[in-house]
Amino acid sequence: MVNEREKKVILLVACLASFLVPYTGSSITVALPAIAAQFNADAVTLGWITSAYIVSAALFIVPFGRLADILGRKKIFVLGVLIFTVASLASALAPAAGFLIAARFVQGIGGAMLFATSVAMVTQVYGPGERGRALGITIATVYAGLSIGPFLGGILTDHFGWPAIFLINVPLGLATIALTLTGVSHEWTDAAGEHFDLYGSVVYGIMVFSAIFGMLLLPEPAAGLWIFVAGCTFAIFIWWEKRCTSPLLDLTIFSGNQTFVFSNIAAMINYGATFAVAVLLSLYLQYIRGFSAETAGFILVAQPVVQMIFSPIAGNLSDRIEPRIVATIGMVITALGLSFFIFLTPVTPLYAIIISLMVLGFGYALFSSPNTNAIMSSVDIRYLGIASSMVATMRSLGQVLSMAIAMFCFSVFIGSVAITPASYPALLTSITVAFLIFTCLCIIGVGVSYVRGTIHNS
After folding, report:
1. What CA–CA distance (Å, rounded) separates 243 from 202?
2. Which conformational region is residue 453 in: left (phi greater than 0), alpha (psi within -120 to 50 degrees), or beta?
3. Do the Cβ atoms of 10 and 131 come closer than 8 Å?
4. Is pTM beyond 0.85 here?
5. Other CB atoms closer than 10 Å to residue 161's CB: what's the count?
6. 8 A C-beta contact, residue 279 and residue 403
7. Before 219, cis peptide (omega within 30)?
8. What pLDDT does residue 456 have?
9. Which one, of 371, 358, 357, 300, lies nearest residue 136 by Cα?
């Protein structure tokens, strides 16, 4: 039995880990023009600097979630923080764009280990009556990272250079490792003694990589071939997992569990519609509006600050009110916030942009905590590792989808050229078209969220 002190330490280290990853991702968005200037990178390369982490995380979350069930969640969590910290140092020392992309990929491996374990540990030690609140706090720290990221990233980029963004992760990562090793005594191994499905992991990796790479290659003709490969390997993966005695992904978790299935799909759609917002607006504010990285970061803070404030409240609500209702209202408000950015112009008032970001943040806060609560509460305790992995996988796949849409628009309207004043009109067109697609995607998400089913017995 975990005592109250250890429960608080588990929540704290989960929050620290949940802060590190989004802080890094959101701070990079305001540093992209500075990175482009140093490495003479085009818009598509900038997209890969953002996407490399997401691709890696999506590939490894489920395998590491399974390994955590077998070897212990604490072990995988600590190793994940270590890898993330070392990769952050390597990113800061990157001599070229290709090296930075590679370092970001390694960061994604560490991030996969963190997100495959942190939510599961919190869910394991907090019961149904307090789980929503604990998950709300955890998710609030995600938004704290998103909030501080653009602002702090802008200051660091303008005054110390973009590598300083990554260097901050080193002491934070080491502190998280020390706190976990000294304050957490339990090691959760719900599948101890079972075999790791290496063959299934390889097939799964090929499937996910092919799907992601195909999406990111659009509109290149080769994209269709990669997506076809993904479809074939998906069929092989399902066939193998049904016959494997110790599968990577126990497919019975999906059988007859409408809440679990649709909540995961809703999560992917929500991330798909919102993740690239900061990237697009950062480019808009710095290139088209001419603001510094620091100023752009200050403006972008409006969204995650609202998310951070309201996530614990939404999590609390989902302990008392059916998560389906709260999350669906959140998805509606998110779609409303996104729709405004379809009408961006070079002279759109800043107050209108900030208000729209706040609306978007409020909608996202209402959706995310209740949706995560619905996913984690809809499965038996022996499936917590898989459920936690699926939460993180849907996040990563949604983020990839979001960046794929953005990069598709860049490819169509700008092409593989450096962003210059001559290409600003094309940049604005690509941004507004991307927001149109995001809004439509979010509207579909409203229906998916609403039909998920219930978890409260009343």
Report:
1. 16
2. left
3. no
4. no
5. 14
6. yes
7. yes
8. 58
9. 371
d(CA 108, CA 165): 16
- Distance from C-alpha of 436 to C-alpha of 453, rounded to nearest angstrom: 29
Residue (of 3, 38, 43, 27) closest to 410 by Cα position: 43
The token duo for 316 is 């609390």
Pair of tokens at residue 286: 């710095």
Architecture (CATH level 2) of domain 4-184+248-450: Up-down Bundle (1.20)
Sign of the CA dihedral running 29, 31, 35, 40: positive
Helical axes 302-320 vs 128-159, angle rounded to 10°: 180
CB 50 within 8 A of CB 28: yes
Q: Which distant-in-sequence residues (6+ apart) come within 8 Å of 84 by Cβ?
A: 20, 21, 107, 110, 111, 113, 114, 169, 173
Measured distance CA(296)–CA(274) in Å, rounded: 18
Q: Which of 132, 193, 80, 57 is nearest to 319 (CA)?
A: 132
SS3 content of the chain, % helix, strand, coil (to 5): 80, 0, 20
**Would you say 58 and 111 are in contact if contact means Cβ atoms under 8 Å apart?**
no
pLDDT, tens digit (0-9, with 9 covering 90-100), for 81-118: 999 999 999 999 999 999 999 999 999 999 889 888 88
Where in the chain are the domains? Answer: 4-184+248-450, 197-247
187-242 per-position pLDDT tens digit: 777 767 788 889 999 999 999 889 888 887 877 888 889 999 999 999 999 999 88
Euclidean distance between the first and final Cα of the chain, in Å? 29
249: closest CA among 201, 211, 209, 195?
201
User: 299-312, pLDDT tens digit by residue?
Assistant: 988 888 888 788 88
Question: 173 with 13: CB under 8 angstroms?
Answer: no
